[in-house]
Amino acid sequence: MASRGWTAPKARRPPRAPQGAAGIDAGIDAGIDRARRDGYLRAMSTRSILIHPDPRLKKVCAPVAAVDERLRSLLDDMLETMYAAPGVGLAAPQVGVDARALVMDCADKDGPRAPMCLINPEILWRAEALNEHEEGCLSIPDIYAPITRPASVAVRFTDREGAVREAAFDGLWATCVQHEIDHLDGKLFIDYLGAAKRMLITEKMRKLKRERAKAGISA
């Protein structure tokens, strides 16, 4: 998910699990990768981000079978790529990897980082209350549109160490995790828009890809 200069809310534990999400005992804090909050422990590299339209962005991703060093290396690269973009979320298919994995960090841009790695995420509960947020996407650069989603969600996921967790998200965190899980299901935020607007955006992206190809930039 792309950032458009907003100051995201600081990562925090919600004061309580949203009504209807009973049993979700972990807030955002529980999933934050503390070992990589202020510095990274392994060499990382940025990866090329796929630009729409690309068939790999429309594919339902395969579940991750095992959490191993290869996967952790991918997650580290995804975080580095996300921060460099800059963005607040990135899903594996956006870097050409068929895996149900995503990273995000919606902490205040002036505060400490709060990286999260979610493997095989599954939404357990959605609030009835809705929230509209202007969303963007690193695979659809410089395009933004207001999208309405549930204001809070509860998610079960496996973390980078292989532990299964459940967490409640609200605010920008809720928007971001839903946006990234959509990527794992082959859905883009522009799919929530009308057909005419989608076609216009897609043509702009085709033009951008042609310009990048001429300049020798991968997309």
In the CATH scheme, what's the topology name? Answer: Peptide Deformylase
CATH architecture: Alpha-Beta Complex
Structural class by sheet pairing and helices: alpha+beta
Calculate the terminal CA-CA distance, rounded to whole Å.
17 Å
Describe this structure in words.
With 219 residues, the protein is α+β, with helices and mostly antiparallel strands. The chain has one domain: Peptide deformylase (Peptide Deformylase). 25% of the residues lie in helices and 23% in strands. Strands 1-2-3-6-7 form a five-stranded antiparallel β-sheet. The chain is globular. The two termini are 17 Å apart. About 6% of the residues have low confidence.
Salient structural properties:
219 residues; alpha+beta; Peptide Deformylase; five-stranded antiparallel beta sheet; two-stranded antiparallel ribbon; 4 helices; 25% helix; globular
Give the arrangement of secondary structure elements.
Blueprint: H1 28-31, H2 69-84, E1 89-91, E2 101-104, E3 116-126, E4 130-137, E5 140-150, E6 152-158, E7 164-170, H3 171-184, H4 195-214
Give me a quick take on this structure:
This protein is an alpha+beta fold and 219 residues long. Helices cover 25% and strands 23% of the residues. The protein has one domain: Peptide deformylase (Peptide Deformylase).
